[in-house]
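ugh ok fine here u go
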Amino acid sequence: MSRIHLRSNTLVLWLSLSAAVAAAGLGVGCSSSDSNDAGGGGASSGAGKGGKSGGGAANTGDAGDSSEGGSDTSSGGTGGSDVPSAGGGGRSEAGGGAPTGDAGTPGEGGAAGSGDAPDPAIARTQALIASLTPITRQCPACHQANYAGLGIWKNITPDETNGIGTWTDQQIKDAIHLGVDNEGGELCNTMERYAFSESQLNDFVIFLRSLPANSKKITSKCVNP
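structure:
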């Protein structure tokens, strides 16, 4: 009986040791697969439910709670965009540093003044005309305030059909200074031959060309005695 009892105790002890060894082996196997969800070597940064993807210092930003199994993406690192992580298969999204907002709309320049400034020659000519005495020597006394003429006094606006729009600069200056038209014919002898300087004549040309064109047709002719 003592031998049977001893063998029974030995069998129980052997079964216990076998169960312990089997349990230890099973524990080692589980620890090798569940120790880190992210796999691969390298330092894992941040804290999620499991380890984050490793593979060196490519990702430095925190990734939140969605890094299980190395399949989710980690954001905000210094690596380039869309580069596979060195860990368990995750992909690193756009790296840090690049601005994401749209560029601001460039400020528009200040509003430019409307129209060109008037030529100083115009003001000089207007002052010259106003200085002529008596008033009958002033151009509007015969050619009217709009310079379109009246009676025998010609239309001297830039109209090309009934004015002086086709005259050259020199022809205009000759009419004022010498009293001849664009064909060399003599103008009315009642029109003064003005002794203006060349500079004043040049200003006169600019002034007359700046006037609004008027299509008024003058048909009366001057008869010189």
